[in-house]
């Protein structure tokens, strides 16, 4: 048994060890680097070292100016808030559109469900960049959606609610941003919800009906609570990445739509201010740590249940 | 069904389980179990779920290591041997047929691991297919087979390597009742034809009694009694065993007189003249176990030899008709219920006992057992 | 099949179909628009001037785009293969080994890239690589560093897919293999691997697509001369509407559509035959 368990132990060490090591080096360690750079000073080309030797003495130079700047300039604060706001709106809209969608998919005839699922997956497999670009075309003047909305004078109501800057200008507005984000992240909401609802035991609803519940009541008292796991999974899969989204705000957003992902990008690529970018990143991480923990707990629980 | 054998007393047993313990962080799933199993016998571990029988089986297979104790098969200590080195094969409860392999490849799997030359391998696989009568299905995949056919493949696969010991994990659990009866007989015939030593695990007493030559009743990690099915049924060693196997009437009483060849026990409703002696002191509390089919039921007071012992009067409170036999529930004076089972030997009885009738129950001295544990 | 819906059956069916229909229109409208306007004979995509294939002709000689495509395919291939290896290892670690020290951290690190905003991953990975480069002299930013980033993301997705399949496996199958004489590695190669093969394939395809499509990580981690196709598209899209993008989009959409439809039909047919075989076996019970 010794050789057997010896082999097992060695096998076990590498099976766990290899991915673990890789993750520590390429995922965990970088966060420490980010934090370190957020308290560093920016040199001409790159960041100055935190530890340096001057005149034979080891010196630790930490600069909290980036963090100070973050708190002083209330633009950053507003941007963080705005990012959370748009992420939340997107999540709610995805839920509002996606839940009935997944529900009716799961309740459709069993034979066509695979086809329905495939039709949802197809856009998912198509490049997301191209699909976001497509909305640029649709919302641009003379684009189909533009023509539809202006014909119905819906753009005036949108302007009234300050979702667009002026009637007729649908691009680069909060409206276009939210449409782009909802469009991109809708499959991320539909898939976990569908998988959850499809597995639900319909006999529970029959039992509820037998005990006197109307279908409407049964839906709210049984179906919705049972799909809680799917709702949480879908919401986290939408909310967390949306907070730090860059591509969609860049292509479809505008001066009105403050998103922290763009701020990070600009600090790094335009201002070449690495410490600032890192500071922005650190605060962003802190913001999403709670939803991240919720997501991780959900994943762990889902795995426990499956085991 | 199978020829009854007692474990050979003189030569060392084929499979020896010496004082084996399995401890799962303080919880003893198997608690000092010792068994000797003879070559060629079909041995059953019987008990309800959680009694440790499956853990013991897995220790034989090599999937669990004993925390203490030894397992010796054919003179070879199995300690330290991984499952793939043991001359033991197992038939799993879910059959565990490899879904991506054909029936032929499933049976050949173990032989290929041994590096058996191709012609010998083909011969052996064909022989196995013939044994379980699945020759026509060799090229099929498991999902193309019915439950009964899958089981036969699993059996063939575990016999292919001619193991020294075959383990069966709830062999008939997945089959429905009708199929179960047919398969029981077939299974035992095949095992006896091959002559392999077999240890099976089951919670179904019918399965154990019909298939095994000896049974070990287990509870909470311990062995309560080992013996041939008839011994276990007719002379249970403890109250638990008596109650677990079949139906039984348990009556509590005190030992009144203790003689070498018989004892008299005083119970609430009646007194018992038991036709065997026991080791005990007068006045001690004992239980009497009488099986329902050993009790005779009639209207008139019975004239038995040991009167006034071994008889009691009561009212028929309930009866359940099973077709070939009827079970009567007789309410006794103390409020206790006596279960009597009578076969319906003739189609029509003029004075058929029914609800509310008073009747006398009687039994012979040797059809009851005194239990002290 | 009995269906329970919150409203009356007829209304629910109509409402359901309507909602599904509207949803699918929403999902496909941009895709259809992209394809349609790729044939538009006009530099301004939204004013239809006539049918033409000139954008596709231009695409054939578009060095920047084609170069980006080739680079992206190479990186995607390596990403898919390496993600599969690391992801399978991680999936095994999580499924087979119930308890090991640091399991929560491991599980957290494996799952986090699924949701973490790419700007954070990109920035942190880049900063780390720069620090390493300053200390050790390598790696230079380029295709390899892009690969690291994609691998991080790909591994997370691969782990989820493989893990889901592993958990559905009957553990008695591997025990049966060992019981019949297969040593642990043989068990993996002869029994486990064939049974998770389909999941491995989907994980490969998923990570391939992800890598091919990635913008943010590639932007942070690229170096001189390593511009991937999404970066080319992105820089053009930023400037405005561009028919060359429509053309390349249509090509990609067509390939993806064909692949997905073919795969779905194939899988559906295999499922149907399997169900038929099982039903047939039940009927002639032995």
Write the layout of secondary structure elements.
The complex is a heterotrimer of chains A (307), B (373) and C (286).
Chain A (H helix, E strand, L loop, with lengths): L1 H37 L12 E4 L2 E4 L4 H8 L1 H33 L6 H13 L2 H12 L4 H8 L2 H7 L13 H25 L4 H8 L4 H12 L1 H16 L3 H6 L7 H11 L3 H33 L1
Chain B lengths: L14 E10 L2 E11 L4 E5 L6 H9 L6 E6 L2 E2 L10 E4 L11 H11 L4 H14 L15 H13 L5 E5 L7 H18 L2 E6 L2 H7 L2 E6 L2 E6 L1 H6 L4 H6 L4 E10 L4 E5 L3 E4 L10 E6 L5 E3 L12 E11 L3 E7 L5 E7 L14 E5 L5 E4 L2
Parallel strand pairs in B: 3-8, 3-9, 6-7, 7-8
Antiparallel strand pairs in B: 1-2, 1-4, 4-5, 9-10, 11-12, 11-14, 12-13, 14-20, 15-19, 16-17, 16-19, 17-18
Helix pairs in contact in B: 2-3, 2-4, 3-4
Chain C lengths: L8 H29 L16 H7 L2 H34 L6 H9 L6 H19 L6 H25 L3 H9 L4 H30 L2 H6 L7 H11 L3 H41 L3
Distance between the termini of chain C: 30 Å
Secondary structure tally: strands of chain C: 0
The proportion of strand residues of chain A reads under 5%
Which CATH C-level class of the largest domain in chain A is it?
Mainly Alpha
Broad shape of chain C: globular
Unreliable runs of chain C, pLDDT <50, ≥5 residues? none
Largest sheet of chain C: none
Query: Compute the gyration radius of chain C: what is it?
Result: 24 Å
Instruction: Give the helix level of chain C as a range of percent.
Output: over 70%
What is the CATH C level class of the domain at 77-226 in chain C, in words? Mainly Alpha
Our count of domains of chain A comes out at 2
Radius of gyration of chain A: 25 Å
Largest sheet of chain A: 2 strands, antiparallel
Assembly state (oligomeric): heterotrimer
- Write down the CATH topology of the domain at 77-226 in chain C: MetI-like fold
Features:
B: 373 residues; OB fold (Dihydrolipoamide Acetyltransferase, E2P); 2 domains; 5-stranded antiparallel β-sheet; 23% helix; 33% strand; elongated; C: 286 residues; mainly alpha; MetI-like fold; 11 helices; 77% helix; 0% strand
Question: How is this structure best described in words?
Answer:
- The complex is a heterotrimer of chains A (307), B (373) and C (286).
- By secondary structure, chain A is an all-alpha fold.
- Helix content of chain A is 75%, strand content 3%.
- Chain A folds into two domains: 59 residues, no CATH class; 234 residues, Orthogonal Bundle (MetI-like fold).
- Chain A has 14 helices and two strands.
- In chain A, helix 3 runs antiparallel to helix 11 and helix 11 runs antiparallel to helix 14.
- Chain B has two domains: 227 residues, Rossmann fold (3-Layer(aba) Sandwich), CATH 3.40.50; 125 residues, OB fold (Dihydrolipoamide Acetyltransferase, E2P) (Beta Barrel), CATH 2.40.50.
- Chain B has eight helices and 20 strands.
- In chain B, strands 6-7-8-3-9-10 form a six-stranded mixed beta sheet, sandwiched between helices.
- In chain B, helix 2 crosses helix 3 and helix 3 packs across helix 4.
- In chain C, helix 1 crosses helix 11, helix 2 crosses helix 11 and helix 3 runs antiparallel to helix 8.
- The longest helix of chain C has 41 residues.
- The radius of gyration of chain C is 24 Å and the shape is globular.
- Classes of the chains: A mainly alpha (307), B alpha+beta (373), C mainly alpha (286).
- Chains in contact: A-B, A-C, B-C.
- At the A-C interface, helix 1, helix 3, helix 4, helix 5 and helix 8 of A face helix 1, helix 3, helix 4, helix 5 and helix 6 of C.
């Amino acid at each position: 048994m010794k050789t057997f368990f010896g082999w097992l132990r060695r096998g076990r060490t590498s099976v766990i060890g290899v991915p673990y090591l890789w993750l520590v080096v390429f995922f965990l360690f970088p966060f420490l680097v980010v934090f370190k750079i957020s308290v560093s000073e920016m040199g001409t080309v790159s960041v100055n070292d935190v530890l340096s030797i001057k005149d034979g003495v080891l010196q630790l130079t930490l600069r909290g100016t980036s963090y100070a700047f973050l708190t002083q300039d209330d633009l950053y604060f507003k941007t963080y808030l705005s990012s959370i706001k748009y992420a939340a709106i997107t999540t709610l809209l995805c839920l509002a559109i996606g839940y009935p969608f997944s529900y009716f998919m799961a309740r459709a005839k069993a034979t066509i469900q695979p086809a329905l699922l495939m039709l949802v997956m197809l856009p998912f497999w198509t490049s997301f960049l191209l699909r976001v670009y497509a909305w640029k075309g649709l919302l641009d003047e003379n684009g189909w959606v533009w023509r539809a909305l202006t014909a119905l004078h819906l753009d005036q109501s949108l302007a009234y609610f300050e979702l667009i800057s002026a009637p007729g200008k649908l691009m680069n507005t909060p409206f276009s941003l939210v449409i782009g984000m909802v469009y991109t992240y809708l499959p991320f909401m539909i898939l976990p919800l569908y998988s959850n609802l499809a597995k639900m035991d319909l006999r529970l609803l029959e039992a509820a009906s037998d005990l006197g519940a109307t279908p409407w009541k049964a839906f709210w008292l049984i179906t919705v609570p049972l799909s809680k796991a799917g709702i949480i999974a879908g919401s986290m899969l939408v909310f967390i990445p949306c907070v730090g989204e860059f591509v969609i705000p860049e292509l479809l957003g505008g001066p009105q739509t403050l998103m922290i992902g763009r701020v990070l990008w600009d600090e790094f690529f335009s201002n070449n201010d690495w410490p600032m970018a890192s500071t922005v990143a650190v605060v962003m991480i802190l913001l999403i740590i709670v939803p991240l923990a919720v997501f991780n707990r959900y994943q762990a629980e889902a795995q426990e249940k499956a085991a | 069904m199978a020829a009854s054998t007692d474990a050979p007393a003189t030569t060392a047993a084929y499979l020896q389980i010496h004082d084996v313990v399995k401890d799962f962080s303080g919880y003893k799933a198997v608690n000092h179990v010792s068994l000797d199993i003879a070559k060629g016998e079909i041995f059953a571990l019987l008990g309800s779920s959680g009694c440790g029988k499956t853990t013991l089986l897995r220790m034989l297979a090599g999937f669990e290591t004993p925390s203490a104790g030894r397992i010796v098969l054919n003179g070879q200590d199995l300690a330290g041997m991984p499952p793939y080195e043991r001359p033991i094969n197992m038939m799993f409860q879910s059959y565990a047929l490899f879904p991506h392999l054909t029936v032929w490849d499933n049976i050949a799997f173990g032989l290929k691991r041994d590096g058996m030359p191709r012609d010998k391998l083909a011969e052996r696989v064909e022989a196995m297919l013939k044994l379980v009568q699945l020759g026509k299905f060799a090229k099929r995949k498991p999902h193309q087979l019915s439950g009964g056919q899958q089981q036969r493949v699993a059996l063939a696969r575990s016999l292919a390597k001619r193991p020294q010991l075959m383990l069966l994990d709830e062999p008939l659990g997945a089959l429905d009742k009708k199929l179960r009866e047919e398969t029981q007989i077939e299974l035992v015939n095949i095992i006896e034809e091959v002559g392999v030593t077999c240890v099976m695990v089951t919670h179904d007493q019918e399965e154990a009694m019909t298939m095994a030559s000896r049974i070990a009743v287990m509870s909470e990690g311990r062995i309560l009694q080992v013996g041939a099915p008839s011994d276990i049924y007719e002379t249970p060693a403890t109250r638990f065993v008596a109650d677990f196997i079949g139906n039984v009437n348990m009556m509590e009483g005190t030992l009144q007189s203790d003689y070498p060849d018989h004892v008299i026990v005083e119970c609430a409703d009646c007194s018992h003249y038991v036709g065997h002696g026991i080791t005990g002191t007068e006045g001690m509390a004992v239980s009497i176990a009488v099986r329902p089919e050993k009790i005779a039921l009639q209207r008139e007071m019975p004239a038995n030899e040991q009167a006034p012992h071994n008889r009691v009067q009561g009212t028929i409170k309930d009866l359940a008709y099973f077709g070939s036999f009827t079970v009567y529930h007789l309410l006794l004076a103390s409020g206790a219920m006596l279960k009597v089972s009578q076969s319906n030997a003739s189609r029509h009885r003029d004075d058929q006992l029914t609800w509310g009738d008073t009747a006398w129950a009687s039994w012979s001295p040797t059809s009851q057992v005194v239990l002290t544990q | 099949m009995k269906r329970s819906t919150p409203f009356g059956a007829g209304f629910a069916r109509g409402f359901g179909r309507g909602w599904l229909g509207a949803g699918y229109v929403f999902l496909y409208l941009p895709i259809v628009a992209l394809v349609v306007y790729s044939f538009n004979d006009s530099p301004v995509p939204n004013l239809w001037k006539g049918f033409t294939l000139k954008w596709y002709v231009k695409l054939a000689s578009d060095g920047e785009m084609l170069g980006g495509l080739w680079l992206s395919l190479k990186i995607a291939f390596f990403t898919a293969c390496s993600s599969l290896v690391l992801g399978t290892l991680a999936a095994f670690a999580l499924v087979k080994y119930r308890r090991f020290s640091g399991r929560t951290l491991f599980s957290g690190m494996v799952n986090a890239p699924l949701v973490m905003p790419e700007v954070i991953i990109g920035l942190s990975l880049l900063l780390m690589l720069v620090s390493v480069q300053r200390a050790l002299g390598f790696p230079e930013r380029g295709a390899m560093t892009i690969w690291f980033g994609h691998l991080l993301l790909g591994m997370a997705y691969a782990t989820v897919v493989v893990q889901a399949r592993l958990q559905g496996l009957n553990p008695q199958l591997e025990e049966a293999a060992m019981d019949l004489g297969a040593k642990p590695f043989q068990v993996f190669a002869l029994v486990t691997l064939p049974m998770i093969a389909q999941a491995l394939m989907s994980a490969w395809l998923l990570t391939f697509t992800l890598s091919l499509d990635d913008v943010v990580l590639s932007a942070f981690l690229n170096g001189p001369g390593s511009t991937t196709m999404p970066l080319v598209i992105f820089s053009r899209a930023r400037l405005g509407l561009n028919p060359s993008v429509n053309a390349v989009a249509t090509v990609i959409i067509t390939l993806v559509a064909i692949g997905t439809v073919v795969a779905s039909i194939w899988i559906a047919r295999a499922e149907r035959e399997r169900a038929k075989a099982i039903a047939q076996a039940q009927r002639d019970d032995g």
